[in-house]
Design goal:
Layout (H helix, E strand, L loop, with lengths): L2 E4 L2 E3 L2 E3 L4 E2 L2 E2 L4 E3 L2 E4 L3 E4 L7 H9 L9 E3 L5 H4 L2 H7 L4 E4 L1 H11 L5 E3 L5 E3 L4 E6 L9 E5 L4 E3 L23 H12 L3 H13 L6 E3 L9 H12 L4 E8 L5 H15 L3 E6 L5 H9 L1 E7 L9 H13 L5 E8 L5 H11 L3 E2 L4 E4 L4 H19 L1
Parallel strand pairs: 8-9, 9-10, 10-11, 15-16, 17-18, 17-19, 19-20, 20-21, 20-22
Antiparallel strand pairs: 1-2, 2-7, 3-6, 4-5, 7-8, 12-13, 13-14, 14-15
Helix pairs in contact: 5-7, 5-9, 6-7, 8-12
Bound molecules: flavin mononucleotide and fe (ii) ion (FE2) (2 copies).
Protein name: MBL fold metallo-hydrolase
InterPro entries: Flavodoxin/NO_synth, Flavoprotein-like_sf, Metallo-B-lactamas, ODP_dom, RibonucZ/Hydroxyglut_hydro, Rubredoxin-O_OxRdtase
Pfam families: Flavodoxin_1 (PF00258), ODP (PF19583)
């Protein structure tokens, strides 16, 4: 039960095996809520767990120290999956003081009618626990205003809050103990939670060096702990620069099959040109899965039939979700079936353009059903997109 991260620093979180949806994002592997206990002359707990998991966390803490002896509860992030057990925890940690950022303190006042003693810290502030020194790094908007990270200086363990996490419930605690490369899960997590903040991440990666944080271990708030920090730091850098491969994501919805046939023919053209194709029927796939695949794709082809002069609601939902994630460095194209005046392809093209995608215009629409010429045009569109990708 005892999971030592390093030298008196313990994982004391909880495993949520059953979670399948995390605020609208699909989590087929569940998740963990990671809390870390740092034991020295003084004892600090970094974060708590989601409400309902407090007993599991307390059981783990009790296996290491008497809970009443916890001196500090550090709140790196206010979101409920981490702060949800504060009230329960502070009842047990009778003598503890809370440590948070200034914005964290404001949030604690708003959310929990903060009645606890609190110490506010800033980037560079330190707290001595005896032999160990904790240093704090504010990371506003990664991904909430209150976020900060806690660095155990002597042990070089960076407790990184939501950054560098993954939604995986597992018995293993360390990334290198897993039977597969979890960077794919880390990328899914990044795409759905951190992509909008890519410019801030690039700044953070520089800042970490400025404040002399050189972690040997990165311990995020979800999923597995990184013993090879460069693995995930290098990936975050690549992802935040929107590096993409010769890959196109094609997503569509359809009523009577014209738009789906178009999608398959576009794919044939692109495959002929040697580009990797990923295909999604939007109604059969979760939007979070589609945007994860799109994260490192160079092009996005989105298809919708016209319904009452506009696009399908499923396509609109995907576009709304994508807009919030602020994708960069992508080619976009719309396509779809129509009957009389059309409208969906124009709406899709405008939406992609307004998000900053480099659109191929005017896209392509097919009246009612495919004719021979339409088939050729679709294959040709696939080829044209592929050529743009390879430029
Ligand atoms: C309920 C309904 C509403 C439609 N509204 C429009 C419309 O407003 N404008 C238009 O051009 N076509 C409209 N259509 C025709 C479809 O867009 C056309 O049949 C198209 O080829 C369907 O593509 P799909 O086979 O991919 O579903 C409508 C069809 C249905 C069933
Ligand atoms: Fe969060
Ligand atoms: Fe979280």
């Amino acid at each position: 039960m005892n999971h030592e991260v390093k030298n008196g620093i313990y994982w004391v979180g909880a495993i949520d095996w059953d979670l399948r949806d995390f605020h609208g994002y699909s989590t087929p592997k569940g998740t963990t809520y990671n809390a870390y206990l740092i034991v020295d002359e003084k004892i600090a707990l970094v974060d708590t767990v989601r409400q309902g998991f407090f007993d599991e966390m307390l059981m783990r803490v009790s296996g290491i120290v008497e809970p009443e002896k916890v001196d500090y509860l550090i709140i790196d992030h206010l979101e409920k999956d981490h702060s949800g057990s504060i009230e329960d925890a502070m009842k047990v940690f009778k003598n503890a003081k809370i440590i948070s950022s200034e914005r964290g303190k404001k949030g604690l006042d708003e959310w929990y009618d903060n009645k606890w003693p609190i110490i506010v810290v800033k980037t560079g502030s330190t707290l001595s626990l005896g032999k160990k020194t904790l240093k704090f790094l504010e990371t506003p908007m990664l991904h909430w205003p209150d976020n900060m990270m806690t660095y155990a200086e002597e042990d070089r363990v960076l407790i990184s809050s939501d950054a560098f996490g993954q939604h995986i419930a597992s018995s293993q605690r360390f990334e290198n103990d897993m039977h597969y490369d979890i960077r794919e899960d880390a990328r899914t997590y990044y795409a759905n939670i951190l992509m909008p903040f890519a410019p801030l991440i690039l700044k953070l990666l520089d800042k970490v060096k400025d404040v002399n944080i050189q972690p040997e271990i990165i311990a995020p708030a979800h999923g597995l702990i990184w013993r090879s920090p460069e693995k995930i730091l290098e990936a975050y850098k690549r992802w935040s620069m929107f590096e993409s491969g010769p890959k196109i994501v094609i997503a569509y919805d359809t009523m009577w099959g014209t738009s789906s046939r178009m999608a398959r023919l576009i794919a044939i053209g692109a495959i002929d040109e040697g580009v990797e194709v990923r295909m999604y029927d939007i109604r059969k796939s979760h939007i979070s899965e589609i945007v994860s695949d799109l994260q490192d794709a160079r092009a996005f082809a989105l298809g919708s039939p016209t319904l009452n002069n506009g696009m399908f609601t499923s396509v609109g939902a995907l576009l709304t979700y994508l807009k919030g994630l602020k994708p960069k460095n992508k080619i976009g194209v719309g396509f779809g079936g129509y009957g009389w005046a059309g409208g969906a392809v124009k709406e899709i093209t405008e939406a992609l353009k307004s998000m900053g995608l480099d659109t191929i215009e005017p896209g392509f629409q097919v009246k009612y059903v495919m004719k021979k010429d339409d088939e050729k045009e679709c294959i040709d569109l696939g080829r044209r997109i592929a050529k743009r990708i390879k430029e």
